[in-house]
């Protein structure tokens, strides 16, 4: 009998959820899910507080033939941590989150745990932080001391591990690469509970490795001294669209600013540019003021590295109009206007305090559907940006002008430029050069989903027609929302494109990284999730379908992994997924698919009262 450690008992006792999820000798009242519970599994999430507890999880899982995966803020909905079908395979999976974790043990290089627990090395312009921290906590450490991250996303909404160990997460600084490229060394735990530190050439194996080599408990990342960062805004109307004028304006934005994030808003037919310059000359803000700002944000968002953001005022408003949001152009217009006004207000406020390049906090992030594409540029990305903007604008304008459309846009088209350098990581899917990353966002509330996904997929296919070698963003679903019952109806959208996924990594990268997996994790304790499919190590694909016992919705049988939607009669009648073709003659049934071939679920006397049973 395996005893439940104290840190798990605390997690169980403090949760408001009654269900208990158990795997591999561990139990938790929290199951692994993704942002806004868009996908979920039955694997327990465990919250170790130190190296001893983490070692207990790893060693117990290994002893029981189980896998260990680490979760970040939950934004990766396409199975990066684990896939639903992984649970139906040979090995169970437990999921770890490090939000409560503090490094405690000394590593093989002699470094103490304390030296990795939020330690700024000013001479090296690096900082060592646990991967379970949020990027909000990271900024709270370095910004009051006069340092900044080398690139920025819109919001402080990620876990450090999720941002810095994903090979795709990019920011808006044009001459900087992805977050993973900023990692200078890593502190890890392997399947034998050894605490190791890797740096120099070895760190390339760990950059963007997504937890496949071992548990990265802390990272040393490169930061930059504040030289008077400024945050400014510009805009251009595109109502009287002139391609050369727009192209020239985009070129000026790229040439005149260190970082720029651009947003196209279809109803107002305007592009906003949110600009960041690292050498703007503004005097350094007193540490006490920035520290007070971050302390208040962390007080409001204590679990930011786990939650990944949650219902904002915009999202709450959207829930009120959920029933008509995708069918009413006026509501779509109103939501987009609220989103634009809110974003610009938050950016202007952030330009004053804390002035760190970010502008969204975890409580300001609505739930959205998204398509994304990373396009390699021939030179400076001006041509590619203009071409994608033009085709996307035409596409969105057609929808807005169609009075019979069953979906209308409500969030913006967004893009930014970054630069990939040679030889940054072993698990590399991008060639060196400049890239423009495009996203189209769609608010995901109430009934919205199928309609927006059909339109989003259609636009992404247009992008691929123009740039067939465009690269995916790991974790963004390769373009399409979780479609319940995908492939089961003309209303459903294929979730993943096999042609795209088969070409993410070339054969030399696959072979090289598989060798690293054998070297660092010979027992395969950490090998699970969608990366295995990309590496050719598994044919398990993502499915948005439901487990047995979960509710089945619009598509009935097609909503279920078992392809069988039955009925339960407890406090109320619920349609739930059940085991297919499992009931024999005269056994009670609630749906035809429950009966073995040759029998049908029919009403009749059984055995002492009338009921449904499998009959000949």
What is this entry, summarized?
With 616 residues, this protein is α+β, with helices and mostly antiparallel strands. The chain has helices at 6-14, 51-63, 135-142, 160-164, 203-206, 243-256, 287-300, 304-307, 313-320, 329-352, 382-400, 450-466, 498-502, 507-520, 531-534, and strands at residues 21-23, 26-28, 31-33, 40-46, 67-70, 93-96, 119-121, 126-130, 147-149, 183-189, 195-199, 215-225, 230-237, 259-265, 270-277, 368-376, 413-420, 433-443, 565-569, 573-577, 600-606, 609-615.
Q: Please summarize the sheet with the most strands.
A: 6 strands, antiparallel
Class of secondary structure makeup: alpha+beta
Q: Which of globular, elongated, flat, extended, rod-shaped describes the shape?
A: globular
Total of helices: 15
- Distance separating the two termini: 46 Å
Uncertain residue segments: 1-17, 484-488
Gyration radius, rounded: 25 Å
Q: Whole-number average pLDDT?
A: 88
* Number of strand elements: 22
Description:
The protein has 616 residues and is an alpha+beta fold. Strands 7, 8, 9, 10, 11 and 12 form a six-stranded antiparallel β-sheet that branches. It is globular. The model is unreliable at 1-17 and 484-488 (pLDDT under 50). The chain has 15 helices and 22 strands. The longest helix has 24 residues, at 329-352. Strand 19 and strand 20 (573-577) form a beta hairpin. It has helices at 6-14, 51-63, 135-142, 160-164, 203-206, 243-256, 287-300, 304-307, 313-320, 329-352, 382-400, 450-466, 498-502, 507-520, 531-534; strands at residues 21-23, 26-28, 31-33, 40-46, 67-70, 93-96, 119-121, 126-130, 147-149, 183-189, 195-199, 215-225, 230-237, 259-265, 270-277, 368-376, 413-420, 433-443, 565-569, 573-577, 600-606, 609-615. Helix 3 (135-142) runs antiparallel to helix 7 (287-300), helix 6 (243-256) crosses helix 11 and helix 11 (382-400) packs antiparallel against helix 12 (450-466).
